[in-house]
Structure formats: C-alpha cells, structure tokens
Amino acid sequence: MSRFNPYEENGGSILAIAGQDFSVIAGDTRQSLNYSIQTRYAQKVFPLTSSAVLAVNGFAADGKNFVKRVKQRLERRMFPFYVYNILAGIEEDGTGAVYSFDPVGSYEREACRGAGAAQSLLQPFLDNQIYFKNQTLAPGAEPFVPGRLPLSTVLSLVVDAFSSATERHIEVGDGLEMYVVMAPGRSADDLTAEEAQQAKEWPSELTVEEMESLGDEQEEGKAFRVFRLSRPLKRD
Amino acid sequence: MNGGSVVAMIGKDCVAIASDLRLGSQAVGLASNFEKVFPVNDKLFIGLSGLATDTYTLRESLRFRVNMYRMKEEREITPETFTHLVSSTLYEKRFGPYFIEPVVAGLPDATPLNPNPKPFISTMDTIGCITTPKDFAVAGTATDKLYGVAEGLWEPDLEPEDLFETISQTILNAMDRDALSGWGAVVHVISKDKVVTRYLRGRMD
Amino acid sequence: MNHHPGAWGQTLTPHQRFDAYSSSAPSRYQPSSAGSGVVGNDHGMYDAGNEAVMAGGTGVVGHTQQPLVTGTSVLGLVFDGGVMLAADNLASYGSLARFRDIQRLIPLESSKHSSSCLAVGGDMSDFQYLQKQLETMITNERTQALGDDHPSLGPRQIYEYLSNLMYARRSKMDPLWNAMLLGGVKDGESFLGYVDLLGTTYTSPTLASGFGSHMAQPLLREAYESRQAQGKSGEREGELMSRDEAVAVLEDCMKVLYYRDARSMNKYQIATITASGVDISASKSNETEWKFAEGLRGYGPQKQ
Q1: How far apart are CA A212 and CA B22, in angstroms?
Q2: Taking the model in full, what pTM does it have?
Q3: Chains contacting B (3 or more CB pairs within 8 Å)
Q4: Count of A–B CB contacts within 8 Å?
Q5: Between chains, do A60 and C66 touch, taking CB under 8 Å as contact?
Q6: Chain B residues lying within 8 Å of A127, measured CB to CB
Q7: Which of A125, B196, C180, C198 lies 20 to 30 angstroms, CA to CA, from B85?
Q8: Contact A158/A9 with Cβ under 8 angstroms?
Q9: Per-residue pLDDT tens for C211-250?
Q10: Which CATH fold topology does A13-232 show?
C-alpha cells in the first residue's frame, strides 16, 4: 500500500530584482497540477508590510498556510513547508533588498533571484542582464554595478523574463503580477507619470495601482510606497 | 553521460551554431577541447551533443553517407536533405538509439528550383523526429537554460556580427548555470561568402 | 538501541533486545489514554477531532489511508445571479455501484445576507463526518449571531474553515479523502472555491474535480469564456451566462461524464445558489444515445 503523499507540485514561477532605492518582485498567476490548469488566477506574491513583499512558490496549500503563519509571526521546524520563498523590500538603510530562501530556511541577500518551475529558464537570463555576467565594458564606459538599474529597465526585464518562460514552460502563464516597493522620499514619476508610460521601453498592457497603507503606522513624509502592477501573459 | 550543449540560431541571410568545449565523466571534467560541431560542407554544420562516443560514431557514419551522396549526385547535399539523412540514420537504431540530439545549421545555395534560399536550422530527438524552428534550436544538458536565455535575447533578422553576439551570450550564460557544460565554447557564423569561427573563453569552474 | 520514533512498537530481535545500558525498552511502551497522548483543544467545538486511533496497544497511530465508498466528480459554475453545483447520486464501492440514491450536494448556511452549498466527491464516510462537523460549527455560529453583533457566516468564511480543516488533517498525515466545491452568494457577490484532501485550494468561475477536471472543465471554460468574449466587441462585455444557459451546460457536462466515467451514473442533481437561497433540484437524467456502440467490436452482440 502506497503511503499518503502530503505534497504536490503546483508549477509557476517567481522572481525578484533589487534596485538602488526600490525593489521589484513578481510571479505568474497560473496554478497547475501535472497537465491541468487548476486556476488562471492564484496569488503567489503577497504584500506583508509597507516595506516587504513575499513571493511563495511550490506546493500551493503549504504556500497559502505559510503566508498565513508568517503574518502571525510563527516559526516552524520539522515537516517542512515545501515552498521556495523570495522576500523583496527596502532595507533599514533605504536600499532595495531581495532575500531568497530554501524550504528549510537557508537564506541569502541577492540583487536578483528567480525560483520555481522555470527557475532554470529565468536565472541565466538574469545573470546576464542584472549581474552583467559575460559582458565586457566598452572602452571608457562606466563600470557595471548590479542592483543599480533604473526601474523602467527592471520592469521590462521582468516582463521579458516571464514572457520567455511562458513561451517555453507549460506551467507558466495566464497572468503576471508585480509589486514595486519604493524607499521613503523616492519619486514615483518613473512609474506613474504619463511620460514614463508612453516611453518605448514601457511594457504593453501594464496596469499600475498604488496599494493603500498596509496597516502599519508610517511617519508623515517618510512613508514607503507599494505599487501593484499586472499584465496578461499567454494562456496556452 | 559526458555533458555538453549545442545551440543554433537564424539571422538575416546567415546562421550560427555553437557548442561548449567540455568533455566530462559524470561530475569530473576530462577535456576542454571537445568540439561538438562539425562541418558537413562549406555552408553546412552539425552539432552532436550527448554521449561522446556516439558523437564520434555518428560523425563518421554521417561523413561516409555524405561522401556517398556527393559521389552519386555530383553535388553538395542541402541542409534539408541532410536533416532527413541524419533522421533516417538515427531511426535505423530505433530500439537501441544513439544517445545524441543533433542540431543542424546551414545556408543553402541558390538553385534554379530554389532561387531565394533561406537560412536553415533543424533539430532532432535521439530517434530522429525532426523539428525545423524559425528562430533557434537547442540541445544538450543545458537545454532549459538555453531556452530561457535565447527566448530573451534572440530577435529576427540579426546581422552576422549581432547574431554572433547573441548566440555567444546565450551559450555562455546558459553554460555558467549548467554543471555539465562549459569550459569554453566554439561559435561558427555562416554567411553567404564566409564562415567565421571563433573560440570563446568562458569560466573554467 | 534504536530510539527513532519509527522503531517504536516494533518487535525486537534477541540481539536488539539486549539492553546493555538499561535504557527503557521500547517494547514495554504503553500508550497513555488518547486524551493525554494527543494535544487536545479545550474549546473542542471547532476542533477537527482527535481521530487518531491507537492500534491495539502497539503505540502506533493508525490512519484511514484509502477511500472506500466513493463519489465521483463534482462540477461548479458561476452564472448571472449566483452559482450552480452538480453531482450525481452514486456512491460506489470500488467498481460496484453500491448506493444509488446518495445526495452529494448539501445546503449550508442560508440567511437574508448569504447562502452557501457544498458539493462533495471522494470518501463518503469522511463526507458524512465533515457534514456533521460543518453543521455543528454553523449552528453554533448562528446561535451567537442571534445575540450580539457577531458577524454571520458567508461562503468565504465556510470555505476558509473547510480549507483549514482539510489542511490540518493532511498535516497530521490523516487526510479526509475528499475533493469538494463550495458555492455561495453573499451581498450579491458570487463565490466558488475548490478544496481537496491535501488542503490545496483555488477559486475560479468554473471548477470541476476528479475526472471532471479533464472532461467537463474544458466545456465549462468554453461556455464561460465565449459569453465573456461576446462583450469584447459588443455591448455585453463581461456578461455572465443566464440561469438556463448554465443548466444546459451542466447537463451537457454530466452527460459527457456519464458516457466516459465508469464510476458515474445517469441520475444527478443541480444546486442553484442565489441571493434568495439554495435550490437543489430533484434527481434528473439525460437522454443518451448508444446506437453507435452497435457497430463497435466489444459492445453489443458480436457478428463476426
């Protein structure tokens, strides 16, 4: 008699990129099991506080309950949650931060990270475009510094990365949901201004909305700002 | 197996094909000069990634068959015909296959029947099922990673120099995330009047 | 001496039984009463239940690990004004069509604010346990809601409770072997969600469990999406199916499932959940056509 298997693999992918004074974190919205799409909209990215957003990928039931427990600040060892986590937000010094975790809690701060079903498609692309791996400087050019890309570039990279993963991975698609966390005092013009949204680099069909306060008290004029960006992905 | 990856891409009136240079035995690296791409004629190349012994066996058996074709037909084999030759060679061993996923890249000559030939790439599984993509073809242990990067970097109608940059960045960055591929790469860019072959230095870890 | 919990209660070889250090012998382990052995819940009323059965003094906890009497797929669909659920009336015992008049749609809380209904597939004894559990919880909540300003239960609250219960049981490695759909309406807003034995949850305007997720879900999605798309160029953007259209689609799906799902039966019910309450239809059946089978080898009388 086969033993009851308490885990499942629900597909999908997540990704986060840190900037100098912002961070972007994204996930697709498909939830699948083997070759069946269970739903075209299931959340993988969850705003936790005004300065931190968590993306969860793996076994969806564990994911939802993990987020629930994190929100209650509980801790868990043994019988691990089968989830890969990426946390993005703003550090105390005002810099954009991305922390990635494995199911048993090992973590690392990075400039970017892809995870989930399409990790092997996303990560080498990010190595090249975010860490500038295998790129050499033109004579006299400014040196590359990872984590300093402008927001507009980061956004189009995230959209490109997910469009690519959608094209070649059956478990990725349907919709893309991104959260942008901005450090206090940072101008949001490069996200909200008409001009920015008309630029050539601006991804098509992208909708932007600012999240209202996430409950925690914020000092006047020193508030973090969180934006939710969404865009359709191919459904096939 | 021995590891290794191959990728081919279509550009504007040109094609490119590249492979890594590693030969390994499981996790142990054995050689850093093991090319997996071989010329078939002036404008046609084949990449044979997979089991190294089959890479050589298949290369020799294809060399024999292409020579026979050349003598009988008194002309060079076209990329499309060559693809079918590879496919049937693989299918002969349907129930004990060569552990090879070939990638073919070539620039057909203009003929009266086909005055405006287009750059051609194709790929097969181990028993010869053919796919002829319009953009790029990948094979080997870094397949997933090659798809991820190529899908992000490739665009239509690249000139030879831009195609070289694209295919090089694709294989280098995919290789660096694959434990079984790497140790440098070789790139062939085939255009109307010349083939440019370049060796890329890569991470040696 | 093997102190790993997995080895507790195992018979020991003479070699293993030799206890050089006089540590406590696992073979003498006696389970204490179930109450103190398992973490209890003082409030008890919403506890998923300490169902762990102590197997004959061995100290090994035994669990239900396979379904016995089962119901097949259930379907769900959001329409204009509410939600519909469908399930057939069969409870199978393996391949035997054992109980042929089982209602697998259960109406839950219904008030002037909201109405909810559950459709259940999988193990029928787990389903009956679950039904009792839910009704206890709902009665308690309703009683409290009568007095002070205690909020009443909507479909989302019942769904959350169900999800937590199912996830808690799977985390105890003692799942309730079911896949369920919860449909409901609250303050004019429709809700349709799925929960299963692993605690996996998702919501969607069309849902199907089991075999239905392969055979009926594509038909449901096609019907739902074609109606949505009609609006893209015209004036009816985002419009939902009418009640009659929804019934027609569900009937069609139940027919398809009856043709191809060997654990199904041509006798089923449809629950319609709207602001005015839960209406569960009388059992009905579809016209079927088996003439095509005459010409097929393996069906009907053989001629050659």
Answers
A1: 53
A2: 0.81
A3: A
A4: 56
A5: no
A6: 173, 176-177
A7: B196
A8: no
A9: 999 999 999 999 999 887 655 555 556 789 999 999 999 9
A10: Glutamine Phosphoribosylpyrophosphate, subunit 1, domain 1 (3.60.20)
